[in-house]
Amino acid sequence: MKQAVVFFTRDGSTRVAAEVIGEKFGADVFELEPLRPYGQGIGGFMRGVFGAAFGLKPALKGDVAVKLGEYDKVYVGSPLWAARMAPPLNTFLASLDAGGKEIVLFTLQADPTANHPASGVKKLAESLQSRGALNVKTVALFGAGVKKTAEKAEMTRRIDEKF
Length: 163
What we know:
Elements: E1 3-7, H1 13-25, E2 28-31, H2 42-53, H3 64-67, E3 73-81, E4 84-85, H4 87-95, E5 102-109, H5 119-130, E6 135-142, H6 152-162
Parallel strand pairs: 1-2, 1-3, 3-5, 5-6
Antiparallel strand pairs: 3-4
Helix pairs in contact: 1-6
């Protein structure tokens, strides 16, 4: 089974999780990059939250979705913004041919008590299934506190517990 991890990150925790998942399952790892970066200030964060809340689809560098035709299982990772995946994931998932693929949506959030997928992520999973995905799973992970990046050892432990 050929596997891939596709992710977007702003503060780095989702990258750490994506790399751990890639190592754990022998998956190829692809990072989504918006043409217009969100930046590290509050303005960039608010632009991202607004985009997530309204389902915006920003332009991305490259077309990762086209590369995934030969993959059987795709792990899709994002920080959780406004109970939804970040806007670059909207763009990617809209162009992904989900038919016949197993998909795992994983989100990282700053709330250490969040152990269930957010409502927006559940709706996204249902949409992917209606587009032909064989099996869609959701996993909520605690990343790190606001403006902090998760440590690899701790993220490995969390992923081992959830996967």
